[in-house]
Amino acid sequence: MKALWTNIDYVASVVLLLIGLYAIMAKGNLVKKLMGLNIIETAVFAFVMAAGIVDGGDAPIMGPGANPPFANPLPQGLILTGIVVAFSTSALALSLIIRIYARFGTIESEELWGVE
Amino acid sequence: MRRVLTLALLILASVPLLYGVAKLPPIGSVDNPAYTHVVPHYLEKGPEETGCENIVTAIILNYRGFDTNGEVTVIFTSLMAVFGVLLAAKKAKEQPGAIETPVSPVTHFIVRTLAPFIVVFSAYMIIYGHSTPGGGFQGGTIIGALLIATSLVVGSKHAQTFLPEPIRLWLQPAAVLTFTVVGLVGMLLLGKYLSYPVDGAYLFLRVPFLTAIEFGIGIGGAAIVASVFWAMEGSIE
């Protein structure tokens, strides 16, 4: 229990991940499912960022006045990449949803079961 | 019923996740495994090896430049995919342009007043991305968000005149093109794709290389974000 408390940031991203998973599994609306996917992506970003936290760490920007310790710059760089990829997948998924709506007039997955 | 089953499954899934999280090394310690391999080298040698005082920029543009090169290709490819999906829909059903929605004069005034400051802010982020917080992606998305806000206020048709179609077509792949050009110039001068001068005669080219890539990423990102919005808006009646 104490280990969970010291790693409360990781626990928060686990909770976010489960919320997103719930949205994907329980919601019928395709846009809401996509929001769930976005929440899961946020959970992963928060998890990796939390691994880069350093107690009392400054932003990893050198130059005059910079003094160690610095926050870990590697997760920040990786997550910057990840956010852009998340944007790309969301844009593609949203445009597919627009197409589905234009074709079938609905984005509820239960109603989409019956259509050809 | 389905909701209860889903919740039960999620609670079941949370057990191994929480167990694993509890076993991870504590957050915030300098002895964290994530902090002990390459990071000390980046922090110590980063400014002199790359010319970036901002180590995050040093990592994404220099140490892991190939990664970023692939990533700008990903975002450009996704734009092409969005066009492919949405233009097919347009052909099937000829639609008139987006309807102009009147907005409140307050919103209109605020967006128009803030626009120049937002542009200056994002230009600063792009230009000084290698030595202060910020960078190409951040500045680019700010400009993209400004274009989207302008489209919502004055209508897409009017907002698109800031980025006319023929210019937009060249700005969308700007990030990929600058990366390729800078990478090839680096290859001609130093022998390896996307290599930056560390010392020697070409050292003065290092900051222009970085600024060029930042600008390419910023402008390309802004054009892509705005184009995705316009493509989606144009295909909704």
**Rough outline of chain B:** globular
Poorly predicted ranges of chain B = none
Radius of gyration of chain B: 23 Å
Outline of chain A, from the CA principal axes? Answer: elongated
Key phrases:
heterodimer; A: 116 residues; mainly alpha; 5 helices; 71% helix; elongated; B: 237 residues; 72% helix; 0% strand; globular
Please explain how this structure is put together.
The complex is a heterodimer of chains A (116) and B (237). Chain A contains 5 helices and no strands. Chain A is mainly alpha-helical and 116 residues long. In chain A, helix 3 packs antiparallel against helix 4. The longest helix of chain A is centred in the last third of the chain and has 32 residues. Chain A is elongated, with a radius of gyration of 19 Å. The N and C termini of chain A lie far apart (52 Å). The model of chain A has no long low-confidence stretch (mean pLDDT 88). Chain B has 237 residues and is an all-alpha fold. Chain B is built from 10 helices and no strands. In chain B, helix 2 crosses helix 3. Classes of the chains: A mainly alpha (116), B mainly alpha (237). Chains A and B meet through helix 1, helix 2 and helix 4 of A and helix 1, helix 2, helix 3, helix 4 and helix 10 of B.
Q: What is the element layout, followed by pairings?
A:
The complex is a heterodimer of chains A (116) and B (237).
Chain A: H1 2-6, H2 8-26, H3 30-51, H4 73-104, H5 109-112
Chain B: H1 2-23, H2 39-50, H3 55-63, H4 65-92, H5 105-127, H6 136-154, H7 156-159, H8 165-171, H9 174-190, H10 206-234
Helix pairs in contact in B: 2-3, 3-4, 4-9, 4-10, 5-6, 6-10, 9-10
Question: In brief, what are we looking at here?
Answer:
The complex is a heterodimer of chains A (116) and B (237). By secondary structure, chain A is mostly helical. Chain A is 71% helix and 0% strand.
